[in-house]
Design brief:
With about 160 residues, this protein is mainly alpha-helical. The chain has helices at about 20-40, 50-60, 65-75, 75-90, 110-130, 135-160, and strands at about 95, 105-110.
Length: about 160
């Protein structure tokens, strides 16, 4: 019996990738490269990726519970709880009790963290300027609109289907 490989040849035509087929890989590459560069720029602040992501997300949701942050960061609740503990001990965040639920905490940035998040935002703005160099403003607007449409389509796929 011949192996399946016997029917394959290194000279067989490989389909030329269409723009649609390349899109996912291109988006993944852009995300990876941008994140790697941002990590490099943030390194002098002494924060890990997990820490700066946590602080940045909390700056967008002051007073969020650990459960809410876990959902937004796509992390397990226990991981967020441990990270919150480390950041609290480091003076980056405050935990405040929830008056309605003794098990829950609301999280807030300290003034120190607020200043660092401002620096992170400034660094992110600089990185965006660097990687969008050469793309005209009108094309940027169209690109963001198209990517937003794709995101909306993907979110709709995840929504419960009612029939």
């Amino acid at each position: 019996m011949k192996s399946k490989l016997a029917y394959q040849s290194r000279f067989m035509a490989v389909p030329t990738p269409t723009a649609e087929r390349r899109l996912g890989l291109l988006l993944a590459d852009i995300h990876r490269l941008a994140r790697r560069e941002f990590d490099r720029r943030v390194r002098p602040l002494g924060l890990t990726r997990a820490q700066w992501q946590f602080l940045f997300q909390l700056s967008r949701q002051p007073g969020a519970t650990q459960s809410e942050l876990a959902e937004h960061l796509q992390m397990e609740k226990i991981s967020v709880s441990r990270q919150a503990g480390r950041l609290q001990r480091g003076g980056w965040i405050e935990r405040r009790d929830d008056s309605a639920d003794r098990r829950a905490y609301h999280l807030f940035l300290t003034p120190r963290a607020t200043r660092v998040v401002g620096k992170l935002d400034h660094m992110a703005t600089g990185l965006r300027a660097d990687y969008l160099r050469g793309v005209p403003p009108a094309r940027r607007t169209a690109l963001v609109a198209d990517l937003t449409r794709i995101k909306t389509n993907l979110l709709a796929l995840d929504a419960p289907k009612f029939r």
